[in-house]
Each structure stands twice: as C-alpha cells, then as structure tokens.
Write a structure and sequence with these properties.
Blueprint: H1 2-28, E1 32-36, E2 43-47, H2 53-65, H3 69-74, H4 79-100, H5 104-124, H6 131-142, E3 144-146, E4 149-150, H7 163-182
Antiparallel strand pairs: 1-2, 3-4
Helix pairs in contact: 1-2, 1-4, 2-5, 4-5, 4-7, 5-7
Length: 188
C-alpha cells in the first residue's frame, strides 16, 4: 500500500517536471548564450537547453529520496526495481519529447545526467542532486577548446549525431541504474 502512495506522489512531481521540461525545450529552442571559459580565456557558446535536463534530474532525486522507511525496508516488493523502472520510463519520455520538439540531444543529456546523478548518489547520498549542475558548470567553464568546439569528454554540448556522446550517455545511465539497484538508501 505504501509503495502506491509513493508512486502517486512521484507521478505528480514528475508530471510537472516533464511538463516544464517540454515547455522550456520548446521555448528556448536553439538559443545560445556566451559564457566565459576558463580553459581558453575566451567565451564558450552554449545552448540554453543544456540546463533543461536539470529540472528532470532534480525531481527524480526528490522521488528517489522520498521514502517511508519502515514499509520500504520490510516490504515484499523491491522498491529499487520500481525506482529503476520509474527512472527508465522518465528517460524514455524525455527522449521522445526531445525528438518531438526538434532537440534530440536533450534526451541524451537527460540519459547522461540521470546516470551521473545515480552514480554520485551511491557515493555522496542526497548531495548528489548538485552533481548534474556541477557537471554543467565544469563543462561551461573548462569544456570548450574554442567558442563552439567542446572537448569530447563533455558529452552534454556535443551535437546530436556524436556517436561517442550517445555511447557515453548509455554507459553512464547503465552504471547509474546499477548503482541505484545495488545501493541501499540511508535511513532518515
């Protein structure tokens, strides 16, 4: 019974996050912003839509950390499998939305940042909610060779057809889901 309450709460939060994700992707389009780059002393040209996946990853973290400890620990359902299924579903929905609004890289970025979030969550706990934001800031400040040429390790600002970025996002998400399934949540 308690898993159902958690599922309803997660559904409400995630529905709102996905709606905001869709609206922001549609509104921002391919608009870019020029930010200072510490690596080359110039500016970096980044799409504003790079920041949109943070809305989804933050709400996913809220959903994963909201818990009713005793029923989840003593219950017969494996909550971690339901959490993984929820994360996979959200990533699939965001990928479909990205393609529908003409920004397919947004789905790949949600995939990558969600995997990064879950991997960090296994190490630092609730503080992992800041890791996708820290990744984006690192990319913006030191991840560009020239104004519009990101390093391959950055993943997020890479073009949609960058095969290495897709593979890295899939690997990171797989690692993140594995961490989600294998690590117990800390008791509150």
């Amino acid at each position: 019974m308690f898993w159902w309450i958690k599922a309803r709460r997660a559904h409400t939060h995630l529905t709102s996050a996905i709606a905001v994700f869709t609206l922001l992707l549609s509104a921002l389009g391919d608009r870019t912003v020029f930010l200072p780059s510490l690596a080359n002393g110039a500016t970096a040209s980044a799409r504003l839509s790079l920041f949109v996946p943070v809305v989804v990853t933050s709400v996913l973290m809220i959903c994963m950390e909201s818990r009713i400890h005793a029923p989840e620990v003593s219950g017969t359902r494996r909550i971690s499998i339901l959490d993984a299924a929820l994360a996979i579903t959200v990533v699939i929905i965001c990928t479909a939305i990205g393609w529908a609004v003409g920004q397919p890289a947004a789905g790949r970025n949600v995939l990558f940042l969600t995997g990064l979030l879950f991997t960090a969550r296994a190490i630092v706990g609730k503080a992992a909610v800041m890791v996708p934001i820290a990744w984006l800031m690192t990319v913006l400040f030191v991840g560009f060779r020239t104004a519009s040429d990101p390093y391959p390790w950055t993943i997020v600002p890479e073009p949609t057809d960058a095969t290495h970025a897709v593979i890295a996002a899939l690997v990171m998400f797989t690692v993140g889901i594995s961490c989600l399934l294998r690590t117990a949540r800390n008791a509150e």
